[in-house]
Design brief:
Rossmann fold, five-stranded parallel sheet, alpha/beta, single chain, 7 helices, globular, about 190 residues
Length: about 190
């Protein structure tokens, strides 16, 4: 019983810490990662976005950040110009028309050294997809098993977004407080 109370208290502190980090980023208008995806894969991508928020990483997701009446191309261009990292998500659906434009924009930023891009294989993809030529030049994250307890794919995605090598830390030792401290660490 005492162990459960301690675990619940730690989880509560972690949620509160992540919430404060997200609020600060919102106040600055800062996003950590652009989530590029085919709209047919949105449910899986939104699930990942919610988990990222829990660890203090603010994702840009079209469903959350575009308002009715926005000019999509203008909003996407502004986001892509200012967000230094993209998770290029590949799910069961093929690459869509907006998805390919986002990919090309981040490939260009990556080639000029101004952005990170992380190919992400989403759940329900049966075979490893053939990634676009320049996208396959970077290490990718296989999230097909990310909801299993022993999976470290979410941890690897967070490491990629933060530009940190994952080392040997398994996901189960990875908490919100660690992410918050890690983001502020000067390495």
């Amino acid at each position: 019983m005492a162990a459960k109370i301690g675990t619940d208290a730690k989880a509560g502190r972690q949620r509160m810490t992540a919430g404060l980090v997200i609020k600060a980023k919102e106040a600055e208008g800062k996003f950590d990662v652009f989530l590029s995806h085919n709209s047919k894969d949105k449910a899986a991508v939104e699930k990942i976005a919610k988990q990222l928020l829990k660890v203090g990483i603010r994702p840009w997701l079209d469903k959350w950040n575009l308002s009715p009446g926005d000019t999509i191309s203008v909003a996407l261009e502004q986001a892509i110009k200012t967000i230094p990292c993209a998770a290029l998500c590949f799910g069961p659906a093929d690459i869509g028309k907006w998805h390919i434009l986002e990919i090309r924009a981040y490939v260009e930023k990556w080639a000029s050294g101004t952005a990170r891009m992380i190919p992400v294989i989403l759940p329900k993809v049966e075979e490893t997809p053939e990634l676009p030529l320049f996208v396959c030049q970077t290490l990718w994250v296989d999230m097909r098993d990310w909801e299993k307890d022993e999976s470290d794919s979410f941890y690897r995605l967070v490491c990629g977004i933060l530009g940190r090598a994952p080392g040997d830390s398994p996901m189960k030792r990875f908490g919100v407080r660690d992410v918050v401290e890690w983001q502020g660490a000067s390495w």
